[in-house]
Design brief:
This protein is mainly alpha-helical. The chain has one domain. It is 76% helix and 0% strand. The protein contains four helices and no strands. The protein has helices at residues 3-8, 11-24, 28-44, 50-64. Helix 2 (11-24) crosses helix 4 (50-64). It starts with a helix and ends with a helix.
Length: 68
């Protein structure tokens, strides 16, 4: 998927694609990184929009692993 198309996806779709790719490839590093980011993401997303705060993380992961 071209990079610009990732920006058009909903946060839920980005999350689902990244998690699916990580599960398929048994990418424990992705899940560990995600768990480490959650507390910081909760802090910056004062309105409770945790997914939106993690959106750049999902986009970066999918860009580093094209064809996911």
């Amino acid at each position: 998927m071209p990079e610009e198309d990732l920006e058009k996806l909903s946060t839920r779709e980005l999350h689902d694609r990244a998690v699916h790719r990580a599960e398929k490839h048994l990418d424990v590093k992705f899940f560990w990184s995600l768990l480490q980011m959650i507390p910081a993401a909760e802090t910056v997303s004062g309105d409770g929009a945790l997914g939106e705060a993690l959106r750049p993380f999902f986009i970066d992961y999918l860009r580093r692993h094209p064809g996911a």
